[in-house]
Write a structure and sequence with these properties.
Elements lengths: L1 H156 L4 H10 L5 E6 L3 E6 L4 E7 L16 E8 L7 H13 L2 H7 L6 H26 L3 E5 L2 E8 L4 E9 L8 E9 L4 H9 L7 H19 L2
Antiparallel strand pairs: 1-2, 2-3, 3-4, 5-6, 6-7, 7-8
Length: 376
Amino acid sequence: MRTDARRLRSACEKMAAWEWKERKMRLNKTILAKMKENHQGLARDVNIIEESLEMVEDCFKLVDERDEDFDQKLQDIELCLQKSEKKLKEQEKMADELQALSATLKETEEGRLDLESKRSHIQNEKDELDKKKQELEKMVIEKEEELRGIKLYNQQEQRPSCGAKVKFNLLQSLQEWELEEWDENHAKFAFFMKTVELQISFFPMPAGKGTKASWEQTIDSIKLKYTSLENISSYQRKVHTLMKRCISRERLAEICSTKADIPKVLEDISFKMFKAKCVGDEIYRICLGHLITLNEDRFVVEFVSMKAFLKFVLDIQLDVTLYPSGVTFAVSLKIGHCSQTEIEEALNAVKHGPFYLSRLVETADKLLEEKAASAK
């Protein structure tokens, strides 16, 4: 029994060992198969990861390219913005210039309407002046007859008295002045169509003096009286403005101390009035086509051209008694791309002489026409 039991035990142990070995082999095979399966899965995962990494690299490259394109487009946009800002500033500048030009055009239109009203007024004044001219011509003929009579009388007498000589000197200037009142105490003379009065007061004549001595009667006061500007024409106002600058009461008092000096005063006033009328005629003709400002010895003319896109101002300082030599001017450029030096050179080329102001304005007008023609 023991022997059988040992054999059975040995057989059981062998059987158990074989079964364990067989089971171990099956387990190892299962583990190996599982490991192979896991290895294959991991290999597939590694391939997927490698492909994903390549795809990620491609994405990064694509993103970098997009970033470069985006940066380039940003630079282009910035350049476009800078150009747009520059154009915007130019447009704002042009808008300001157009606004200034529109204001100038508005002033020009107002000036044109004013000139149209003045034209009708001037026509009426012209008719009145024609009538007055005829009356003055008749008066001149009468005064010339008187002058001839006085000359004949002086030639016959061959001894012209002091009083006759003074009267003769007075009559020589009758075209510029008119005697309105004369007595022992005062005298009153009218100038420039009775718009200017010269009032002279005399000191009382000492008793016992003869008629000839009355010409030695001293002057008490000399006054100049101008008609109100509201009651006279535009042309007369300009002449008055010029006269007030060149005729002073102090100067008249210096050259006139007695009655015998009255012809000197009348001659001085007549000369300056003649010069003022000449300059006033030119200024009056200029104002018919331009906007002007006249203030004593300062004469300002504006020149504007839409076609040439140009506006400048000519500021003229003038001395009526020294005209045309006593004239200086300055140019001020307001609008446009023309050189101020070019304008000054063109005006400086105008020579002093008769109608100097008119020729200055004509030269400036020609310059505007040339600039307008070249701007087309």
